[in-house]
Write a structure and sequence with these properties.
By secondary structure, this protein is an all-alpha fold. Helices cover about 50% and strands about 0% of the residues.
Length: about 325
């Protein structure tokens, strides 16, 4: 997905509706229901406030998507390593920088501008070389290797990062860039692709389910918070970086926490119903990708790790539901 330029993260109508929303459970921190969307993909970076003068202009895309991408991305006559990689993989450097949705354009544009500088050429070569030679081993080892590369790139890039640009944009932009390069090798492949089909088939059999089937009052599954949660869940597959995917889950849970407290036993079932209604593509792969590649500090933090764990529990709940046993609506437990 192509995000809006920096500074246009939220419309006035969105802020107004958010201000009317009930306060969510405090365990999830400040939710999307209580503040304007974050423009960096990570709360508190301040990337949304970056002056437009330091963000490269946007030009029309030529891939039929109708969106826009930073002007510094590889052109047809570019013979740099970035262009060579684009020729081999069917996309420019934007394939690693887009994907933060409305939450990541500012950080991606700044980091992309930085990577287009001659001084950053060694960093680009290292990233491209790593992506070309990377062979997934499976499990946590892949995440450890990628995080080691990112830490090294960030340390080297910090000395060249322009003064006055938000430091968070470097970290987030590098992650989006590197993970965008690696995505074809590490996302929705092998056993994960098989599990995606199994889970999708199971959700197809559950398509008839309403709130009453899982003990949820239908009055809770309506309204702006509910619709916003469905939007976050439905957009997970369009994001590239693991932190961005996790952020979508966190924001969805924050929205739902305005309807039911996460401490309530029905919250998992409410989230399960939202997942069933939103039907995010390649759901299994998205969750496994986050678990393998997101920063462990985020994965185990109460603010992000707890909503993510609840989301995995909701998926397991759906995976083990028996459609035949739910043919008659029940207000019982899940």
């Amino acid at each position: 997905s192509v995000a809006a330029p920096a500074g246009s993260c939220s419309s006035g109508s969105e802020r107004t509706s958010a201000a009317r929303s009930p306060a969510p459970d405090a365990r999830f921190g400040r939710s999307a229901a209580a503040e304007a969307p974050d423009c960096s993909g990570s709360a508190g970076s301040g990337a949304c406030a970056v002056p437009a003068s330091v963000v490269p202009p946007l030009e029309p895309r030529h891939d039929g998507s109708g969106g826009a991408e930073p002007a510094f991305l590889c052109s047809e006559d570019d013979d740099s390593p970035r262009a060579a990689h684009a020729d081999a993989h069917g996309g420019g450097m934007g394939s690693g920088l887009q994907g933060g949705g409305a939450g990541g354009q500012a950080g991606g544009d700044l980091c992309g501008s930085f990577l287009s500088l001659a001084e950053a050429e060694p960093l680009v070569r290292r990233a491209l070389g790593f992506a070309e030679s990377f062979e997934p081993a499976g499990g946590s080892a892949d995440g450890e290797a990628v995080r080691a590369l990112l830490a090294s790139l960030e340390e080297e890039a910090a000395a060249l990062w322009p003064a006055g640009w938000p430091a968070a944009a470097l970290h987030e932009g590098l992650e989006r860039y590197v993970m965008g390069l690696l995505l074809p090798k590490v996302f929705a492949t092998g056993a994960d692709a098989v599990e995606d089909k199994v889970l999708s088939a199971q959700l197809d059999t559950l398509a008839f389910i309403g709130g009453a089937h899982v003990g949820i009052d239908e009055s809770q599954a309506v309204g702006p918070d509910w619709e916003a949660a469905l939007g976050e869940l439905g957009g997970i597959n369009s994001l590239a970086a693991p932190a961005d995917k996790m952020g979508a889950v966190v924001r969805a849970c924050a929205r739902l926490s305005a309807l039911v407290a996460p401490s309530d036993g029905s919250f998992v079932r409410l989230l399960a119903l939202a997942i069933l209604r939103a039907r995010p593509a390649r759901l299994h792969s998205n969750l496994e990708y986050v678990a393998r590649f997101v920063d462990p500090h985020q994965l185990w933090s109460p603010e992000a790790g707890e909503p993510f764990t609840i989301a995995r529990a909701a998926v397991q709940y759906l995976a083990h539901l028996d459609p035949a046993a739910l043919s008659t609506p029940s207000h019982g437990r899940g």
